[in-house]
Design goal:
Blueprint: H1 9-33, E1 41-46, E2 49-54, H2 56-75, H3 85-111, H4 127-146, E3 173-178, H5 181-202, H6 206-220, E4 223-229, E5 232-237, E6 240-246, E7 250-258, H7 260-264, E8 268-271, E9 276-280, E10 284-291, E11 296-300, H8 304-320
Parallel strand pairs: 9-11
Antiparallel strand pairs: 1-2, 3-4, 4-5, 5-6, 7-10, 8-9, 10-11
């Protein structure tokens, strides 16, 4: 059984199409407003006033390059169907957040300078920075929810090795890994307090609009829900399935002792070589799912023995029922 492909259509649409559309919108707005803009527009601020200027055309060229190289450069990985799904989702959200920021800032710079004879006294439109980040992150999350795992899937033809553990099918088994509720609350609360002080100092709410989507993304990437049911082993992140293997793919499930730093080079959802994934958040036992296509998924959990036994029993039953 194969479901592999080179490109994810939703990834192409959001990861490449949206940044290109954003650049086209910015160019169109610049062209339409050019007759109403000063010969040179403010593009950089220091202290209380602008200290950098360029023509509307030069500004447009710079913004297009930055949007395509930085924003699209990050989000375009979402189009690669074979890449790790969670990484594609994270990079899409980050990339489109940058695109949203740049496009709204570009339009705001022009809008605040319409019908001015000179941009020397113009203030930097800081509020638009927050609005752009929120809008970009929202589009990124929408696009991320539409991405799918198009990796190649192969069905196992033999039961797991008899020496591997077996166990009762008391399913589903659900474990939560990564940042706990208390740690999450402390981190978000501390960050919000610091950002609130920055808002008071700046006299604007825009730092909070920057902090909230960025911090929620970072916290979301470090919280996992792992579910084992009769269909297979699934890792959920930010309300979406990040990695998953069906029981029909199982060659065998075993238990290993894992140290995240030593064995995977870090903490969280990790990739160690091609097709070797790990959700590694603690040092200790881990259930290791080996698939028929050669890929492996390692999940650290105190219930590793129970999960490995249930997976092997499910695979035995599936093949016996054929």
């Amino acid at each position: 059984m194969s479901n592999s492909r080179t490109f994810d259509p939703a990834g192409v649409l959001f990861g490449i199409g949206v940044p290109v559309l954003a650049a086209a919108v910015g160019l169109t707005v610049t062209r339409l407003w050019s007759p109403r803009l000063p010969d040179t527009v403010a593009t950089h601020w220091a202290g209380s006033g602008p200290d950098g200027f360029s023509t509307p055309g030069s500004l447009a060229a710079t913004m297009v390059i930055v949007i395509l190289l930085v924003g699209c450069g990050a989000s375009a990985i979402a189009a690669l169907a074979g890449a790790l799904l969670m990484m594609r989702r994270a990079m899409l959200i980050v990339g489109l957040t940058v695109v949203g920021l740049l496009l709204t800032l570009w339009i705001a710079l022009l809008a605040t300078q319409l019908d001015l004879a000179s941009a020397v006294e113009e203030a930097l439109p800081m509020t638009w920075i927050g609005l752009g980040i929120v809008a970009g992150a929202a589009v990124g999350i929408l696009g991320a929810s539409m991405l799918r795992d198009h990796r190649e899937r192969s069905a196992a033809t033999l039961p797991p090795d008899p020496r591997l553990p077996r166990g009762p099918l008391d399913l589903p088994i659900t474990v939560r890994l990564g940042l706990g509720p208390a740690t999450t609350a402390v981190l978000l609360g501390t960050g919000t307090a610091i950002t609130g002080l920055l808002c008071a100092r700046a006299g604007s709410w825009w730092p909070l609009a920057v902090f909230l989507p960025v911090s929620l993304l970072m916290v979301g990437l470090l919280r996992f829900r792992v579910t084992l049911d009769e269909t297979g082993l699934w890792v959920h992140n930010m309300g979406m399935t990040a990695v998953g293997y069906g029981v029909e793919e199982l060659v065998g499930a075993n238990v290993e002792e894992v140290n995240p730093s030593r064995d995977f080079g870090g903490w969280g959802l990790r990739l160690k070589g091609r097709g070797n994934y790990g959700v590694v958040t603690t040092t200790g036992p881990a259930v290791v799912f080996t698939a028929a296509n050669g890929q492996r998924l390692t999940v650290t959990t105190p219930r590793a023995e129970e999960m490995a036994g249930a997976l092997n029993t499910l695979a035995d039953r599936r093949l016996a029922d054929r």
